[in-house]
Specification:
The structure is a homodimer of 367-residue chains. Chain A is α/β, with parallel strands linked by helices. Chain A has two domains: 271 residues, Spore Coat Polysaccharide Biosynthesis Protein SpsA, Chain A, CATH 3.90.550.10; 85 residues, no CATH class. Chain A is 32% helix and 21% strand. In chain A, strands 5-8-6-7-9 form a five-stranded mixed barrel. In chain A, strands 11-13-15-16 form a four-stranded mixed beta sheet, with no helix packed on it. A two-stranded parallel ribbon of chain A has the order 1-2. In chain A, helix 1 packs across helix 4, helix 3 packs across helix 6 and helix 6 packs across helix 7. Chains A and B meet through strand 14, strand 15, strand 16 and helix 11 of A and strand 14, strand 15, strand 16 and helix 11 of B.
Chain lengths: 367, 367
């Protein structure tokens, strides 16, 4: 799923250069990281077993950053309709090849530190999916994060699953039934979730058979299913383009979590400690990079922090300026060739306000 | 006097691009502003009546930013020796044309808002100089500044001089005898100076006859005078270059204020309110530019301050990024293509620490 706009990484992310195309957590774009992360399970990109769903405006850049990708592996969304329609559209394409295929659904713009645990967790999820379950990866929380959705655990399916250690790196728990999905909590509630040990972060990674997804769509989202049927009928015919644009845009925006997972039968989660981040906004760089002894995280070469604590610097590339911080605390300094953002680390989610201000004054070249 | 290095404007100012060559207070380099400021009294640059004293490493850039300047108007200092040797060297060159000439001495890197008052003040100072006085311009203080030297007033020379109004812009007082020059004061002392009404800021602008300067040098700085005599003997001969480099570097570093003015006879000051600034460090931009309603001073196009107060932004040029400040207070954000400085406005004098750190780690390309 590579349809996001990711303006929260402004000025690095832009309408024409969304977050998944940026190299934020490593020297490779996040979408390339996502493809590489799945390769141990489903093979390299040239195997053709990956589909990327994205907007038409990002087609060329995706082909550029993933040179092994063929045009046929790109599924173009005519418009953004959240994850349920996005996943369903990809599933239509997969079903043409194999209606009983197991589908691994992943955001294109997240980061995972522990590759081996991710691979093991996916393999465990695939087991569940083969038996007909809709399986998600649930990340063992290490802080009362209010920026993520949570998954409440019910009983374990297999015996022997151990509770993951809170500071663990690379552990995979037993497949467990899901009691419910919950929205981003308040900080008090998040603290209770953390202490209870019964809640995991919703990673946005799902594994299921295409046929099971279709069953659930048909039952839970019948209007969507009808539109999808029209699209399916047109596939492989000259009518596809028009059917897609008409039917896809007619679908209501709804997430897979709430449109499908929440109300589905046989929903399971594989608990895992992944060093996972949704790379949600600039402050997330503190999770992705080691800090210096003063708590500063510096991405890019040659930055200087003098009497400066707990700052996040992002200025990368051969033509990016070196940043010198002197006597300042808790700032984000994020550079792009056209614009420079300075805000407080704790307020880096407010960057949307800058984007809104630019829109309001008609500064389109910075959007 | 264009010999300064001005590293306090790092990263805009650099060893190869000192402050006087930068466009800080307007769209023209400070040295060009200084030449234009004097033109109403001494004529345009092509009149040949201006001499610029500078280091050899800045010769080409000076000729570039002042295209009317001829090579003959550039007096090269072999090394920096503070202002007394600098002024004396220029005086030797002037004396060759006219030993009784009145010389106007000005820093190349200051800013003056009120041109007309400056012209009137210089003309009034020239009157005093013609009568044999060593005259300085003293700026009427509007705040208890601790970053400037002060001049204490003695009695007025002509009647009718009025005390300048503290917030005045463009007033010129009567020529007044100087009681003494004082170094940068503590803030308590600066407050007393301000309240007394008997102290002016030392502007670094001096007006005197070349012959009177020579008298004072001979009397107060005899070793310097001896070296200057050697240089004078060599002028116009092939021996000049060697004599200059040997004799000039043999002189002790000393300022004109303390080496000559402090101990001279007939020292006068013309009080003036000029909208003057020595453009000493980044915080000085607050004196040079109007602030927005939130107290932010923005130099360069298109910057955005959202819920941000009392910041100073300097990012100029067609390829400089637009700066977006969100929720931050009292910061300096200064951009150059190679480096970016962020510090507190109140601590902008600490930028030397960054320069020292760069030296220490051998980062020569940023010096």
């Amino acid at each position: 799923m590579a349809g996001g706009s990711g303006l929260r990484f402004w000025p690095a992310s832009r309408a024409h250069r969304p977050k998944q195309l940026l190299s934020i957590s490593s020297d490779r774009p996040l979408v390339v990281e996502a493809l590489e992360r799945l390769a141990p399970v489903i093979g390299p990109v040239r195997s053709g077993r990956q589909l990327i769903v994205a907007g038409a405006q990002h087609r060329d850049q995706l082909l550029e950053v993933c040179p092994e990708l063929t045009e046929g592996q790109l599924v173009i969304e005519p418009c953004p309709r959240n994850t349920a329609p996005c996943v369903a559209l990809a599933a239509l394409h997969i079903a043409q090849r194999d209606p009983e295929a197991v589908m691994i659904i992943s955001p294109a713009d997240h980061h995972v530190a522990y590759q081996e645990a991710f691979t093991q967790a996916i393999l465990r999820a695939v087991e569940g999916a083969r038996r007909g379950a809709l399986v998600t990866l649930g990340v063992s929380p290490n802080r009362p994060e209010t920026g993520y959705g949570y998954i409440e655990l019910a009983g374990e399916i297999e015996g022997g699953g151990e509770r993951l250690s809170p500071a663990g790196g690379g552990e995979v728990g037993a497949r467990t039934r899901v009691a419910r999905f919950v929205e981003k909590p308040s900080s008090e509630v998040a603290q209770r979730y953390l202490e209870s040990g019964r809640y995991l972060w919703n990673s946005g990674v799902f594994v299921m058979k295409v046929s099971r997804l279709f069953e659930e769509l048909q039952r839970q989202l019948p209007a969507h299913w009808e539109a999808l049927e029209r699209i399916r009928e047109s596939m492989g015919t000259p009518a596809y383009g028009r059917a897609l644009s008409e039917q896809f845009s007619s679908m209501r925006s709804i997430s897979l979590d709430y449109g499908v997972m929440e109300g589905a039968s046989e929903v399971e989660v594989v608990p895992v400690s992944l060093g996972w981040s949704d790379v949600g906004h600039w402050a997330a760089l503190r999770e992705l990079y080691p800090a210096d002894s003063q708590g500063n995280v510096c991405v890019g070469d040659g930055h200087i922090c003098l009497d400066a604590q707990d700052n996040v610097i992002y200025s990368v590339g051969s033509r990016a300026p070196q940043v010198a911080l002197l006597g300042v605390q808790g700032l984000v300094v994020a550079h792009s060739p056209e614009a420079l953002l300075i805000c407080k680390v704790d307020e880096s989610q407010r960057v949307r306000e800058v984007v809104e201000a630019l829109k309001a004054r008609g500064d389109k070249h910075l959007l």
